[in-house]
Design a protein that fits this description.
Blueprint: E1 2-6, H1 10-21, E2 27-32, H2 35-45, E3 49-52, H3 61-71, H4 89-97
Parallel strand pairs: 1-2, 1-3
Helix pairs in contact: 2-3
Length: about 100
Amino acid sequence: MRILLADDQSEVRSALHLLLEQEAGLTIVEEVSEADELLAQVEMTCPDVVLLDWELPGLQASVVVPSLTRYVPPPIGDRSQRIAGSSRSSDIRRCRRLR
């Protein structure tokens, strides 16, 4: 599985990278720290999964998240999956509304 990490904190990206690279079959194909890099790198690297920091600088989630479905293949069938984690329930609700 090809993974793109998107987080502005280098420590978070490094920790995720170290953790994920220990799992067989997982490959980190790219890391980005700003929203303006995100779609270009997704298009170039064709990841299976994007681990996205909801508070990535410059991120307009209502624009970027739906755009990701053009580049990230659906896992099974024709529906893409979104998994959201946040300490704020408002973030989860916003993610659910994005199509």
